[in-house]
Specification:
Layout: E1 2-7, E2 12-19, E3 23-31, H1 33-37, H2 44-66, E4 75-81, H3 85-102, E5 106-110, H4 111-117, E6 129-134, E7 139-144, E8 151-155, H5 161-171, H6 179-186, H7 210-225, H8 232-257, E9 262-266, H9 273-282, E10 289-291, H10 303-314, H11 331-340
Parallel strand pairs: 1-4, 4-5, 6-9, 9-10
Antiparallel strand pairs: 1-2, 2-3, 6-7, 7-8
Helix pairs in contact: 2-3, 4-10, 5-7, 5-8, 6-8, 8-9
Adenosine-5'-triphosphate (ATP) binds next to helix 4, helix 5 and helix 6.
Length: about 350
């Protein structure tokens, strides 16, 4: 089947066409980063306005890239949540309008299910699998025993990894979003500060990054008061090392405990060079197969929504035209809903 997918949960207006859940036919992402940069973060009203301006442009571009018309499309998948309500609404409204006008089935997709399924464009899933989701708003370890089924076995108790990256970057005076800038600086520095490795020795698979963020800020503040000049490279490297140590170690333990066949890495922070390298080293001699998306599928895109939407479509899940934006939709609720629908 051929799915047109729409993603507008944050500051990317994105559409894609995905064939049979695994083949990417077209992928268009209109980023708004430049418009939000001077505010140091995403401004919801500005995001919504951009989505409105971009959505038909992106649709035309996506169909043109695929050399298709709406007649070629079998179903429309859209991110229904979580995300910014005003931003989600633009995508959901566009999807409903297209579904109604062209009489196509409609599928609501969870944004994080999308991040995970981006990997299925590379590699077929084999269950049970573990997914490490590290994004701007989420840091979770998710166990999947089957398609569409998500069990959260660990999550952050405060900041998400990407959020910590962006906040620390701001303190260092780096542009938004700061993740890629810290990543770059970190490669030129050393872990000289040895910041805390939060919850590393706890048995749970939960994470915590707000203490680390505060430790970095305090270190910089104290140095400033003493008139000392700290190396941004070493700060970045020390922060990144702490994040990676905890992420990789806890993920490693979970792959062993749950005896998974695959480790699927997902979300914007999976673009991090240091994290990718450490995961590759750690799992080089393990039986579990490591799957990490290419850089353009790590951050927000609609290809991932098409990939997740394809599974929901095949499982018989359909949304009605009263589908609404669902800014707080949990992965577990989404999984339960998928389960209730006979295929
Ligand atoms: P969510 O998916 O949880 O709703 P989101 O959609 O805003 O949040 P993503 O688009 O998946 O998040 O990822 C964006 C995040 O990824 C930002 O916090 C950004 O700083 C971070 N990021 C991107 N590239 C890198 C990198 N190379 N190193 C570290 N972080 C990165
Ligand atoms: Mg984004
Ligand atoms: Fe995202």
């Amino acid at each position: 089947e051929i799915i047109l997918a729409i993603e507008t949960s944050c500051d990317e207006t994105a559409m894609a066409i995905v064939k049979n859940g695994r083949e990417l036919v077209a992928n268009v992402v209109a980023s708004q980063i430049e418009s939000h940069k001077r505010f140091g973060g995403v401004v919801p009203e500005i995001a919504s306005r951009h989505h409105i301006e971009q959505i038909t442009v992106v649709l035309d571009e996506t169909l043109a890239e695929a050399n298709m018309t709406m007649d070629d499309i079998d179903a429309i998948a859209v991110t229904e949540g979580p995300g910014l309500v005003g931003a989600l609404l633009i995508g959901v409204t566009a999807a409903k309008s297209l579904a109604f006008a062209h009489q196509k089935p409609l599928i609501g997709v969870h944004h994080i299910a999308g991040h995970i399924y981006a990997n299925r464009l590379l590699q077929e899933f084999s269950f049970p699998l573990l997914s490490l989701v590290v994004s701007g708003g989420h840091t979770e370890l998710i166990l999947m025993k089957d398609h569409g089924q998500f069990e959260v076995i660990g999550e952050t108790r405060d900041d998400a990894a990407g959020e910590a990256y962006d906040k620390v970057a701001k303190t260092l005076g780096l542009p938004y979003p700061g993740g890629p800038y810290i990543d770059k600086l970190a490669q030129q520095g050393k872990d000289t500060f040895h910041f805390t490795r939060a919850l590393l020795n706890e048995e749970s698979y939960d994470f915590s990054f707000s203490g680390l963020k505060t430790a970095v800020m305090n270190t910089m503040h104290n140095a400033k008061q003493k008139g000392e000049q700290l190396s941004s490279e070493d700060i970045a490297a020390s922060f990144q090392q702490s994040v990676i140590d905890v992420l990789v170690e806890k993920t490693f333990r979970a792959t062993r405990e749950y005896k998974v066949k695959q480790l699927i890495v997902a979300g914007g922070v999976s673009a991090n060079k240091g994290l990718r390298k450490r995961l590759e080293e750690k799992f080089a001699n393990e039986e579990v197969e490591l799957v990490i998306p290419p850089l353009h599928l790590c951050t927000d895109n609609a290809a991932m929504i098409g990939a997740a939407g394809s599974i929901a479509f095949q499982q018989g899940h359909r949304a009605e035209l009263d589908l609404n934006a669902n800014p707080g939709l949990s992965l577990e609720k989404y999984a339960k809903r998928n389960k209730n629908i006979p295929s």
